[in-house]
What does this fold into?
Amino acid sequence: MSRPLQVLRAHVSSPKAWIVIGVTVAGIVILAEAHRRRRRIGSEAVKEDFGAFVERFELLPFPQPPPPALKQPLANLTFAIKDIFEVKGYVTGFGNPDWERTHEAAGKTAVVISALLKNGAKCIGKTVMDELAFGMTGENIHHGTPVNPQMPSHIPGGSSGGSAVAVAAGLVDFALGTDTVGCVRIPASFCGIIGYRPSHGAISTIGVLPNSQSLDTVGWFARDPSILHRVGHILLQLNTVEPRRPRRLVFADDLFELSKVPKRKSLYVVSKAAEKLSGYQLPKHINFVQHIASNVPSLKDFCEQSTNLQNGISTLKALSSAMLSLQRCEFKTNHEEWVKSVKPRLGPRVANCVHTAVNTSLENIKTLYKVRSEMRAALQSLLKDNGILIIPTVADPPLPTNLKKRSSAEFFDRALVLISISSMSGCCQVSIPLGKHEGCPISVSFISYHGGDKFLLDSVLDMYSSLQEQVTVASSSLPFADTNGNLDTSELLKEKGNAAYKGRQWNKAVTYYSEAITLNGTNATYYCNRAAAYLQLGCFQQAEEDCTEAISLDKKNVKAYLRRGTARESLIRYKEALQDFKHALVLEPQNKDASLAEKRLRKLLS
It folds into this structure.
């Protein structure tokens, strides 16, 4: 007999006492089993709703008007809200249990939620968000990471990731989020749905917890462009009738260089879709960074003097730096007291963001506001009242979830340079899905002038079906194959290309080198020379591709490694660039360009 039972037998002689002990033990066993079953049911529920919701409830729509009144515009539609919107009688969690613990239930419901309920929609719950609206990944150490329906083993994006997942998984018809630094646009792109960031200040933020008031907007997600349009009309209080204006598409060719998606699946798709429609002027192709560098002089205070980025990419890095500085300043003003008094438990990345924010200086706040006003004016001068800027929404596919040793710095840098355009100008932007590339969702973004929300929403509705048709065409088509030709002619074309290059006629040089490659696609020098011309034009992706091809043909081509390193550095892919310069040094240990580049990148990465 065990020692505990011997003690009990010696001290407990009453049969009634044994009965009580038996009932107690049985109760403990039953409670343990019930707890185990609840945990199992809970995990199954997470699978059912993709982990999108932090709390489920129902807010019923206002009563429908009796016939013959028209049906309410959002009747029979369901929606979810990010856990940043106040609902009367519920505590707003802000993505963090310590925030929820230290705050009371809301006394009123956010204005935007009331507007949706008034127009017939039903709210079914609050969704998971990045803590305190800091983050672009969608990960939350307290509530878990919502499962991206498009790529279950990859992040959904944030900070409005739960709302995006709820829409992408078909759990609701649309969902509300907030967008400060890409918090709607990034998850929309990663989850393959439409995401809209309105003009700053166009939608009421009463009843929405602030992160940074100069950047915060109320955005929304939808799978269907008509639902996106209807929700937009309610939230923005738009007039239903407006004269149709001709549309002018402006392609930011230099920004598409940051994207790893082939242009035939992004830029070309939009161009072909517009060709099929009436009312669209001939598209314009620009170097967007040069436009910003010329029209936003205050950015010079934020440029990194140590970088060697070509063709003004450093200008966009400066813009993203200014954006983050503004966010930190305003977050500090809003929440420093709470952070210091409560000392909340935060995830590592969010903790770092919050620590940086509460310790930031407010001395350059006027310069930050000046950058914002100059950015808005720069976009207005470019787009006027009929232009739509076309850019990639993000530069990279979503990162895998739970990847502890991730090279995330470049991922965030490359995302932020694109996100900062609308955040700092206050312009409206919509992310539109364009199918997939290598299993990852593709998207492009349309940006219109500040206040041009109806124009932009109408444009999405007008173009969406044509865009999806062109997506199908692009997915089924293959790149043209190269053919070999006369070697003497190809050498002559190469020399013509060299002459054009020396004469600084970069486009003509590309044309000659391309013709040489068509005749002889196995010559590494032709690809390497064309890459040099592409670098001068700021076409970094094409330069990288040409160098990669040159290296596959000639493993000892030092120039190809140097040029590919330069292209990758300009694309803000520093680790890959560093490897190229290291390889060049292995082949040529005394190469000064490679040595300087290696030292510069080591310093950047440290």
Observations:
- Residues 28-46, 305-311, 479-486 have pLDDT under 50 and may be disordered.
- The radius of gyration is 28 Å.
